[in-house]
Amino acid sequence: MQKELILKELNFKAVRSSGAGGQHVNKVSSKVEVAFAIAQSNGLTLLEKDRLLLKLKNRLNKDQVLLLQCDEARSQHKNKQLVVKRLFDLLKKALHIPKKRKATKPSKAVIEKRLKSKKMASQKKSNRRPPNLD
Known about the structure:
The chain has five helices and three strands, in the order αβαβαβαα. By secondary structure, it is an alpha+beta fold. A three-stranded antiparallel sheet has the order 1-2-3.
């Protein structure tokens, strides 16, 4: 993944933010929307594209474009930084390949130790019982 190439391919759009804020909200476009076309990207290899399309298929629109938006800050520049950071975090997480789990089994010493402790607990509890007077 080449971040510099991907940054050049992003399409930003500033939109009026919703919510509280009075007149300021009505006249300032502080909300930032970013669109990233995964299939047409030059900053990703074919394997990376396939993995992203598979992992992020529920977040893509019908044109296979990933859309993210941010209106947390009052500043358009801060929202742009936040949405870019969020995009790269999402891409990094989707491209991460988890390690395969290696099946292991407990050693004989551990098994013996467990059985011995169970036997000791059983003996302790049986010693607490009243004696059988038959």
